[in-house]
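Data availability (excerpt). The following record was deposited with the supplementary files.
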Amino acid sequence: MSSNLNARAALIAASLLTGASALAQGQPSRPPPATEAAKPAPQMTKAPVLVKSVEAAYPPDAAAQGLTADVKLIITIAEDGTVADAQPAEPVGHGFDEAALEAVRAFQFSPAEVDGVPAPVQVEYVYHFTLSAPAASPDAPPEEVERPRATLTGQLISRGSRSRVAGATVRCGDDPEAPEALSDEEGRFSLQVEPGECAVRVVASNFQLYQTTETLKPGETTEIVFYLVPRGGAFETVVRSERPKKEVVRRTVSREEAQKTPGTFGDPIRVIQALPGVARAPFNSGDLLVRGSNPGQSATLMDGVRIPLLFHLLGGPSVVNAEFIDSLDFYPGGYGSQYGRAVGGVVDVATRKGASDTVHGSVKVDFVDAAFFLEAPVTEGVSVAAAARRSYVDALLPLVLPKEEGRTMSVVPRYWDYQLRVDLGSRSKEAPVSGAGRSTGYIMAFGADDQLSVVSSGGDQSRDIKLGTHTQFHRIKGDWTYRRGDFTSVFTPYVGLDKVRAELGTFQEDDRIYSAGARQTLSLDLSSALTLRTGVDAYFEHVEVSALLPISGGTDYVPFPGAEPRTEMQRKVITLNGFDGGLFLEADLKWGAFTLTPGVRGNLQHVNGTDNLALDPRLWLRYAASERTALKGSAGLYSQHAETYQFIPLPYGNPRLGYQRAFQASLGVEQRVMDAVNVDLTGFFNRRFKNVVTPGQLLQEGGGFLQERFSNDGIGKALGLELMVKKARLSPTDKWSGWLSYTFSHAEDGRAGPLPAVTGGSRANAEEQAYGLSPWDQTHILTLVASYLLGNGWEVGGRFRYTTGRPTTPLQHSYDVFRGDGNRFEPTPGPYLSARSGSFHQLDVRVDKSWRFENWTLTTYLDVQNLYNRKNAEFDLDDYRYRGKYKLPGIPLLPVVGVKGSF
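Predicted structure:
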């Protein structure tokens, strides 16, 4: 009896082998090092689809014996859809393995895409060898007419978000011979089966198994939509980054856990304040105080573009909507040569492209502000995303403040922000021509506005007092990325406008800064062991300063008894142009368990006829001692240019300023204790020099003296230890997540030259010493964050923070010192920064409840700041006679109820 061959080429049968970046590069999977255990992998945005199959030759011996087989293969699909490699996963013998490999290597797939870019992937594939029934004899009765087939077609959608589910397997029943189909990038599938009942099973990565029963009629097509339930929380989204880790410390927190961290009001960027190395800033600044650095010494970037504020004032939310965040990189120190203009840390926030499947969005309303986010495809290869927010806490906070007269005074913010992004050339359904390059790009506009006011409570005397501070910025940025093989080019031009207005008594200042810049970065992978990166970074700004100032040498007069003397005022308008450029080069060298990244950055500043140069060599080293243990270290120089407005001629500025410099060094170890627990311990030492300080030196000009407003006499040093113990949630049944963050730090500031003579100030009796405590020093910084899934959409979490109080200068007397010629009281200060304000501690609690409907998700939350109403002092203020101090309290017990709908 002869046998007929019938080899059926099944569509991709099992799950995609994702979860490590090596898979996206077509390399064999290996366990990630301990340092990257919690780092999310790149996301597959388009699954490969079989477009051409080849029938395998049935092994003769197996056919003679009537043997059948299912050969499971691991296939590596190249960027152009061809099969680059195939290996048997479970050899079956009898010649089946060889026959299947020969056929599969001639297959053709549509290219897979990772993060919207064609990329090699590995998939599991099952090749079925079956024997057909023997040919019927002439005398046999005629075969029955084949029954009409039924067609099941439809679309897979993520329940609660309307996102399309690609790369999912749809089949009828558990029989290995059952037909199956793979959903495309739009979540669509089509499956031909026998009529009757179909036990539908849908298997998709990161989604719960979906099962249902459909009755299919002969010759008819049944179309249906299946809503798959994501595993984990309602907003299972991760903060990811394509760049491999090349810094000693880079903190990454998933967007889901960041949005639900208590005390953050759902803002992922505010989680930075709970990470090691970050001191707590006073509530009205929003400054980043990283590893002993001073305010303004850490760079805040959005999509790689410098912005003046990362947070709205009063430590409010970040200036970018939480739903807009794609990745967030925080470098407390030891960062690579591509980053400059900072002697502290760096925060780089990247926004994400708009959805390419359908319209998505969210609306959030709580007691602090209201915001919306919207994203949608416009046409093939074009998508758009937009967001905006407006606060109203300035109107609501007085309602919860005590009403006793004169008892409370608080500073509250009023802010808004917006973001708009248009992406071009996202994805292509055509296979790229072999060797051809690929271009993508986007245009982004964003901005923010902040104003501060003082709210005081007390019966009829309650009033709003404008605190004369107003900050506003706008940016428009472009991005063009070109990839060809191992070469990548990224060009980023941008323009911006900053407005700053300040009022203090009779002093007024209005600044406008018009800026333009561009960054060009080139990267080339010469081999698996060597990667080169180089680029140029140029920044230009035009500054207009308009200030109402006392006339130098003017005559004081007293308008009425007991009032401060006044000086005749004049308005000064000054314009300056400034340029700062950087050229950087670095390489990644891999040798066994060692990874070495040497780099160098050259800096050039030109302002108002002044030229400054700086050269910053840097080195980063990592040793993977085992799969769970890694040692790391770094050392390098860092530069930050003085602000252009500070080059205003004397006495209002100093045209002789130079680069601020810092030496940073760190050494640490990372250990993965269990699969879900990672421990990171890092010690650091930073030394800052030539920092810009105010006031400057006292200069002799002609027959008199003139004091510089700024000078490069600032020095500082900081050393400390950072500990991060993080518990990740590894599966939907894992209920706990959180981290413990502890920083021990000792920071000092000083001057390289003689201390300035400041009348009536805290330096008047300072000893001749180079270093003293930094006003921002906080010895101990402890944060504990925990979250627990209760089930049925409920989640509860808490955050406890403790920090040592900041140094202060005490008053040394309880009597009045009155200066008749100046018509004012003066203090007699004690030793400079010899006392400390009270320690800060606070407990925040958050409760979330989510309801997931077919096309949208509703979430309500209660976020309570300062649960036990701790009266933390933000500032110690002197009374007008300098007899004592009183405390300006921070935010009291503040419950915030919010509602968020997303679709």
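Summary of structural features: The CA atoms of residues 536 and 733 lie 48 Å apart.
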